[in-house]
Amino acid sequence: MAVDRASNADGFQMLPLPRHIPPVPSLPHHHPPASPNPTMSYTILGRKVLNEYLAIGTFTAVGLGTWAALRKPAAPAGPGGKPVKPEPKIEAGSKEEEEL
Q1: Burial of residue 51 (number of CB atoms within 10 Å: 0-12, 13-18, 19+)
Q2: Which pLDDT band, with edges at 50, 70 and 90, does 89 fall under?
Q3: What are the domain boundaries of the chain?
Q4: Bias category Basic and acidic residues: which stretches (predicted)?
Q5: Does the global pTM surpass 0.90?
């Protein structure tokens, strides 16, 4: 049988594809029996809780915990709504040093 070889723009020879590819033999599949309820859930305190709700609760708890740990406390507001800076405590050894 003669094979007609064509070449592309780069000059490489392209072989024709076979017309029929034999099927690959497959191994027997062993699937577990289907359950009547395919959704996964856990029983917590006597109630059925779906995995989706456990995942949402976990992500929410981690996110809120991270937010609470990283936020800065608000400074007390003074007149006009501006933050008040606490004045430093002066520890002087004498009356003259305290006035200075």
Answers
A1: exposed
A2: confident
A3: 39-71
A4: 84-100
A5: no
